[in-house]
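Lab meeting minutes (informal)
Scribe: AK
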Amino acid sequence: MVVDNGQVGFLSEVRKNGAIFTPLPIKPEQEKRAMLYITLSETYQQLYHYEAETHEENADMREHLNEYYDEFVDRYGNLNEKQNAKFSLIYSTTRYPSPLTKLLLSIHLWRRYQRRLINMER
């Protein structure tokens, strides 16, 4: 899933010199969710590549990733909730969760674990 000129869609026939963009016929609320999901994905990919190449933590990018994650959860609920799991499968190119979905679910579970530890200390 990608955004091109403000439209959510897919790329096909990807080659060195271009690709074919096919817009998805989705409702405005689904489009907002898709754009935020794509933003999460792109931020994660940039962070991963930067930290893999430099072997340095990028605090700013991590903060952005956390902000986008929190915004997604605030607007649409936890990533492992039925409607979000369904969403990621509907708009993925395969019938399996994307690596980003798996990563975000693990972030969600880690944050829940950290909150529980903090609450236990109180």
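Next up, CB showed the second protein from the same session:
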Amino acid sequence: MCCLLILAALQPQCLYQVQQNMRSQRNQYRSYWIHWHELIESVSKNPQEPISIAIAGGGAGGIELALSMQSHLHQILRQTQQPIQNLEIHLFQRQTELMPNYHSSVRHQTQQILTERGIKLHLGETVCKVAHTTYREIK
């Protein structure tokens, strides 16, 4: 199974205890792109393997990542005639609602769209540690 954790809400608080080489925001995004390209390459070569992606942060950025990644990976799975059920995306949000600064109707509609698209929501869940691992080590 392929796994990838994405940090969508990178905050300086104790919410995430990220190891040394992921301290700066620049390194975090560079690390994301490296892992994303490795994942795309691996899925393209082995589309039959299950894929699990976890995204920490239920704000607009995390939601955009979840939907964009799902769309891109579904396209690869369809092109290789693999079931889209091979892909699981989990979205973790510390608060009990997504996008807490948005109007309730927007939050409700967004949650409905994510649920309909099969993105698994973990609301009220705090990610307290992220251990840095290269994508190759996870495989």
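CB comment: The two ends are 7 Å apart (CA to CA).
No objections, moving on.
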